[in-house]
């Protein structure tokens, strides 16, 4: 699943905001029991490993010139929640980009 979020920020500012706020991602997952691990294999890619409710999901956040793309590897068994997950990513992903 790919969820693009448009932005008007310089890439450096997007990187800074995602670096400084990535620890907040677990707060965006309902239930309060999620574990989220992030890594930066390169300056424009953040990888995610999310564990919640016995499920593990991986993904990436790709920083592009005018958008940030959240790519989530949603298991087939959870494909029925894809619209809900995409909506949450749009809303919460935008919050990660907001100035704090």
From TrEMBL:
Q: Which InterPro entries match?
A: PHA_gran_rgn (IPR013433)
Q: What is this protein called?
A: Polyhydroxyalkanoic acid synthase
Could you tell me which species this protein originates from? Qipengyuania algicida
């Amino acid at each position: 699943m790919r969820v693009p979020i448009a932005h008007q920020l310089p890439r450096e500012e997007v990187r800074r905001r995602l670096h400084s706020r990535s620890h907040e991602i677990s707060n965006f997952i309902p239930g309060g029991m999620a574990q989220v691990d992030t890594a930066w294999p390169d300056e424009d890619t953040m990888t995610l490993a999310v564990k919640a409710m016995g499920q593990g999901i991986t993904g990436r956040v790709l920083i592009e010139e005018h958008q940030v793309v959240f790519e989530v590897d949603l298991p087939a068994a959870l494909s029925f929640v894809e619209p809900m997950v995409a909506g949450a990513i749009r809303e919460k992903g935008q919050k990660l980009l907001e100035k704090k």
